[in-house]
Structure formats: C-alpha cells, structure tokens
Amino acid sequence: MKFNVKGVEEGQPVPAQYAFAVPDPEQHMRFGDNRNPELRWLDAPEATQSFVVLVCDPDVPGIADDVNQEGKTLPPDMPRVDFYHWVLIDIPSDVTLIEEGEAADGVVPRGKTSGKTSKGVAGINGYTGFMAGDPDLAGTYGGYDGPCPPWNDEMIHRYTFSVFALDVETLGLEGEFTGDQVREAMQGHVLAESSVTGTYTLNPDLT
Predict the structure, then answer these.
(1) Given a cut of 90, is residue 23 above it in pLDDT?
(2) What is the pLDDT of residue 9?
(3) pTM
(4) Are the CB atoms for 162 and 56 separated by under 8 Å?
(5) Paired strand residues for 28
(6) How far is Cα 51 from Cα 134, in angstroms, rounded to an integer?
(7) What are the backbone angles phi and psi of residue 184, rounded to the nearest 5°?
(8) Cβ pair 125, 89 in contact under 8 A
(9) What is the DSSP string of 46-101?
(10) In whole angstroms, what is the distance from residue 20 CA to residue 172 CA?
(11) Which of 59, 96, 155, 159 ranks highest by number of CB atoms within 10 Å?
(12) What are the backbone dihedrals phi and psi of residue 129, each rounded to the nearest 5 degrees, phi first?
C-alpha cells in the first residue's frame, strides 16, 4: 500500500505549517498554523473494509517535571513514551484522501470535539492529557494537533504518520478513545499498513 504525506519526507523536518507550536526567540515557542497535512494512499488490499490513521511521537518524555523549564534540559536517554497527535478510525474503504486543513486549521484552545466526521471517527490525541492542568487550554482534543516537543529537549522528536487497511468496517470504539486503544482493537485485523516519519524540534541548539 502506497502512502504519501504531502510535504513530509522520510527522516526530514515536518514543515512548520503542520506544527502546533513554532520557535520564538523571545518566549521559546508560540502557537503555529497547526494544519493537518494532506494524506493520500492507494493500492490497498481488495478485502479492505476500512482504514485507520494514526500519528504518533514515540519520543515524549515519560516524566514531565522538567518539561519547558528554564535552566533545565531533557537528556535523550530519559524514559520516553508514545504521544498521539491524530487518531482517526472507521474511515470508509472508498476514502483515500484527507485534504490539508480538513482535520485542523489553527490551534483551538480547549480542543476540538472527537467523534463522527465526514472521513471517519476521531479519537482524542495526547493534548487532552497534557493540557489538563492548564486553565486556559484544558479540554478534549480530538482530531489532529501537530508537533509541539519541549523546547528544552535535547532529542529531536520523530513523528510517524501511519495508515492501516483493516478487514472490518468498524472497530466499535466510541467516546474519547485513545491511540493505544485503537492499536489494541486493530490486532488481528490489519491487512496492510504504510507510514512516513518526519522530525521536529523547538530546541534552537538542534536546528
């Protein structure tokens, strides 16, 4: 199965327009355009009944105490965990394109709703938990929200865009389901998959 994430090349930086945050010399970072990139796939198996799209950063610090703290840095060898930036399931089998900006066009404080969309069913992304303690930004973050790695992280983060062809029309997930729940529900149903991994950093010392 072929998969193209327009503007994102394997192993190369994710363009700034697709990021939740961009570097700022005065305050380390500021909100970015936060547009989802165009996704297009083809040559799925004939038995495909639906698709799933996941975008995952596997390099998020597992301990957040020093994240974005002045005078602190996050070493590359610290524990890391998965952080999902997009969770979309039950994409109809005749859909092979998600246009740029269709799932996100700007940062929405307190998030966007999850649930049924014209291209499938959106779960929640990692910002739902990450923003929970922020009175201005806390909320449910559904759909796509782009890269925003800690500006004091000494590791360049990876962002893997993946599409999966499944042998079922629906995974039967409802409510505020997560990327990990999708991976568990997909087990035994994946006919094919393809991915593209880009990179991103807000640390000026790494650019």
Answers:
(1) yes
(2) 97
(3) 0.97
(4) yes
(5) 24
(6) 34
(7) -65, -45
(8) no
(9) TT--EEEEEEEEEEEES--TTTT-TT--B-TTS-EEEEEEEEEEEEETT--EE-TT
(10) 29
(11) 159
(12) -80, -40
Q: 55, 139 in Cβ contact below 8 A? A: no
Which uninterrupted H or E stretch holds 166? strand 157-166
Instruction: Tell me which residue of 113, 114, 110 sits closest to 89, measured CA to CA.
Output: 114
The pair of three-digit structure tokens given for residue 44, joined into one six-digit string:
């799925």
- For 153, the token pair is 């992280």
Long-range contact set of residues 27-35: C-beta below 8 Å, sequence gap at least 24: 28/68, 28/151, 28/202, 29/148, 29/151, 29/202, 31/107, 32/107, 32/146, 33/105, 33/106, 34/104, 34/105, 34/106, 34/107, 34/144, 34/145, 34/146, 35/100, 35/101, 35/104, 35/105, 35/106, 35/146
Instruction: Extract the tokens encoding 104.
Output: 């996100």
Which tens digits make up the pLDDT trace of 117-126?
999 999 999 9
Residue with tokens 């697709």: 18
Rounded CA-CA distance 139/133 in Å is 10
DSSP state of 16: G
Tokens found for residue 135: 């009175």
pLDDT tens digits, 176-186: 999 999 999 99
